[in-house]
Amino acid sequence: MHKSIIILSLIQTFYFMVIDSHVHFWKYDKKRDAWMKDMKVLQQDYLPLTLAATFKRNEVDGCVAIQADQSELETHFLVELSKTNSIIRGVVGWIDLRASNIEERLEYFSQYKIIKGYRHVVQGEPADFLYGQEFQRGIRALERFNYTYDVLIYHHQLKAALDFVSRFPDQSFVIDHCAKPDIKNKKIDEWKSLISTLAVYPNVYCKLSGLFTEANWKEWSAGDFYPYLDTVFEAFSTDRLLFGSDWPVMLAAGIYVQWKSLLEKYMEHFSEEEKQKVFGLNAASFYNL
Q: C or N terminus of the chain, fewer CB within 10 Å?
């Protein structure tokens, strides 16, 4: 074996890190966080110190902090948290992608190297939101700064998402929470067809996150998730799947160790290289950590 290949193999062995690609932090605000009204467990502060203890127990090295509020203040909040909490390896913030001065705002935030990309809560927007000219202009502006974009949608928005991503072949996209399939009602056919088509685009990745809260809370079984995992593993392969938890939102339906161990069990017969990709290397590559 060539010496350089041996060295690379050793580096991957000893420096492989487990990265949770999707977590949130907040200081609970009743008015701002009204979306939590039916999830009492979320109605408190969730900050990196709490997650650090969870990470230690579950052998996770770091995370990507994802915006939970749609304001530039939220982006600043996550950047500030990253300065004193080493578990935060990257930030996906919020910026008004429809703003006329989007280039100027992106230029401003580019001073913070911890910011890797942006997200808008499209799941709460009208059906035609992804077709908006101003929004698409903002997406085009991301490429110059090498920013990623997290696509947060429900399964019924997948048709619009397909048309959307087809217009940006050079933009790096990741689908949050597998596009939230209807696991609770065991509906899979249309979602399976659409997300498999979406996976044809090589610039589109997918997060293995947020599925607990799409199932029947507190009454799910591991087998409920397997048909959906089968679909995304076949569609995206282990080259474009990212482990994520959606902590602390996931706490409404389960605990951290349940989700991580469920994925580990699902992948028990995969190669070590494939496991490393899904549990860390893909996130490091996609988000340029």
A: N
Cβ–Cβ < 8 Å for 97, 150: no
**Span 104-115, pLDDT tens digits:** 999 999 999 999
Q: Which pLDDT band holds residue 210 (cuts at 50, 70, 90)?
A: very high
Q: What is the residue range of 183's domain?
A: 17-286
First to last CA, the chain: 29
What pLDDT sits at residue 281? 97
Closest listed residue to residue 171, CA positions, set 147, 194, 152, 151: 147
pLDDT band of 237, cuts 50, 70, 90: very high
Angle at CA 236, nearest 5°, toward 24 and 142?
55
Phi and psi, residue 89, nearest 5° = -100, -15
Which CATH number is 279's domain given? 3.20.20.140
Domains held by the chain: number: 1
173 in a structural domain: yes
DSSP assignment of 168-228 = -TTS-EEEGGGG---TTTT--HHHHHHHHHHTTSTTEEEEE-S-GGGS-TT---GGGTHHH
Q: Considering the domain boundaries, does residue 10 fall inside one?
A: no
pLDDT tens track for 275-289: 999 999 999 999 999
218, part of any domain: yes
Burial 46-60 (b: 16+ CB within 10 A, else e): bebeebbebbeebeb
In a domain, 232, yes or no: yes
